[in-house]
Amino acid sequence: MDKQLFDTQRNHQNIFYRKLSKRTLLTNWLAILTANLLSPNLEAKTVKKETNKEKNTSRNIHEYYMRLAIKEGKNVPKYPFGAVIVNRLTGEIVSKGYNQSTHNPILHGEIVAINNCAKHKIKILWSELDLYSTAEPCPMCQSAIEWAGIKNVYYGSSIPFLQGLKWEQINIRAQEVSDRTPFRNTKIIGGLLEGECNKLFLTA
Ligand SMILES: [Zn+2]
After folding, report:
1. Which pLDDT value is given to residue 85?
2. pLDDT band at residue 35, thresholds of 50, 70 and 90?
3. To the nearest whole number, what is the mean pLDDT of the chain?
4. What are phi and psi of 145, to 5 degrees?
5. How far is 116 from 94, CA to CA, in rounded Å?
6. pLDDT score of 84 more than 70
7. What distance in angstroms lies between residue 145's CA and the mean position of ligand 1's atoms?
8. For the chain, what is the HEC assignment?
9. Distance between CA atoms of 84 and 155, rounded to whole angstroms?
10. HEC letters along 162-200
11. Which residues are known catalytic residues?
12. How far is the CA of 153 from the centre of ligand 1 (A)?
């Protein structure tokens, strides 16, 4: 190869690499810019999606346990107060109970569930437990829940709703009992499957 041809080829090569280099840089820069512009949105979208999924899963789990409480309540259609105690950490259904006040006036569903729990479980970590009840716990039951140290309470029908249906109810809300229990920090969540629970009491 003569020198002139060699030089010409090298020049073309250099121009090509310079062009390639510029193009590569531009492409890389665009890629970085696009990634930076898009990624926060993508990330936010993913997080939002996961949160909604978690919420749905969480709601489904709570509804599942409440359906078991409803099933308990249906054992006594005239007094459809059913309760289920669940280990929040393992998902184990620890005990169940339904209203037996026709035999003993203080045997409300929650009390029966707590008694069953104490009877059958040798070692109980009460703070790991949550209680699901078709109706808002009365002051007696909420006090028992506080003494036991059950962490979270989920209920369907509220005390005012039951009073509206002329059910005998002591006029103290579960939240008030909880607020007046300084040695616990029980969380009370009402309105879980409220429609289905209300239906139980409407048709009792
Ligand atoms: Zn009660």
Report:
1. 98
2. very low
3. 84
4. -60, -40
5. 9
6. yes
7. 10
8. CCHHHHHHHHHHHHHHHHHHHHHHHHHHHHHHHHHHHHHHHHHHHHHHHHHHHHHHHHHHHHHHHHHHHHHHHCCCCCCCCEEEEEECCCCCEEEEEECCCCCCCCCCHHHHHHHHHHHHCCCCCHHHEEEEEEECCCHHHHHHHHHHCCCEEEEEECHHHHHHCCCCCCCCCHHHHHHCCCCCCCEEECCCCHHHHHHHHHCC
9. 11
10. HHHCCCCCCCCCHHHHHHCCCCCCCEEECCCCHHHHHHH
11. 110
12. 13
The answer, as to whether pTM is greater than 0.70, is: yes
Q: Answer for the pair 58, 86: CB distance below 8 angstroms, yes or no.
A: no
Q: Are 155 and 174 in contact (CB under 8 A)?
A: yes
CA R_g for the chain: 32
Token readout for 107 is 């045997």
Query: Which tens digits make up the pLDDT trace of 149-204?
Result: 999 999 999 999 999 999 999 999 999 999 999 999 999 999 999 999 999 999 99
Gap from CA of 186 to ligand 1 centroid (Å): 16
Ligand 1: centre distance to CA 75 (Å): 17
Ligand 1 centroid to residue 55 C-alpha, Å: 30
pLDDT band for position 57 (cuts 50, 70, 90): confident
